Amino acid sequence: PWRIELSLNFLVVLLVAGFAALYGLLRLVTQTLAMPSHVAAFRARKRHERAIDALVNATRLQLEGRHGQALKRAQVAYDCGASPGLTALLAARAAGALRDEPRKRLWLDRACEHDAEFRTARLMTEVDIALQARQFDEASERLELLRASGKDLSLLRGVHGDAILEGPIRP
Predict the structure, then answer these.
(1) Residues 6 or more apart from 94 whose CB is under 8 A from it?
(2) Rounded to an integer, what is the distance from CA 25 to the centroid of its chain?
(3) Measuring CA to CA, which residue among 94, 99, 85, 111 is closest to residue 57?
(4) Predicted model pTM
C-alpha cells in the first residue's frame, strides 16, 4: 500500500480546486445541452422582430402612397405571422389602390380567416375600397352587413358623409 502525506492546507486547496473543476465541467455540459433551445429562442425573436418591422414599413409605405412596396412588405409581414388579419387588411387596401382585383380578393379572403377579430375592420376596408373604385352597390352591401352587425356607424359620417348612412347608394 502506498502512503500519501498531505498537509491539511494542501488538502483543503485540493478539495476546493476539485469542487471548482467539477462545477465548471457541469456548467459547461448544461450550457452545451441548453444551446439548441437558446438558438431557437433567438431565431424566433429575430423572426418576430422582422415581422413587426415589415408590418410597420408596410403601414408607412401605404400612408406614403407607395402601394406596390406596401403590398410587398405586407406579404413579408404576413408570411412571418405578424398580426395576419391586420396585415391582410393592409395588403387589401394596397391592392385596391393599385386596382389589382385578383390580389385584392386574395387578401380580403385571407382577412376573412380572421373575422373573429377584424370583421368590422374588414367590412370598413371593403367599403373604402369599393367607394374608391366607384362600386357603389358593393359598398352599400357592405354597409348593410355592418348595420346588421349592430355596430355604431357614426364613424362613417366624418369620412364618407351622411348620405351613405341614410339609404342605398346610387351613382
Answers:
(1) 58, 62, 67, 68, 70, 71, 74
(2) 42
(3) 94
(4) 0.66
d(CA 84, CA 103): 16
Q: Reduced to 3 states, what is the DSSP secondary structure of residue 88?
A: helix
- How far is Cα 154 from Cα 166, in angstroms, rounded to an integer? 12
Q: How far apart are CA 82 and CA 74, in angstroms?
A: 9
Give the single-character DSSP code of 41: H
pLDDT at 163 over 50: no
The Cα–Cα gap between 96 and 103 comes to 8
Q: What string of H, E and C letters represents the secondary structure of 121-134?
A: HHHHHHHHHHHHCC
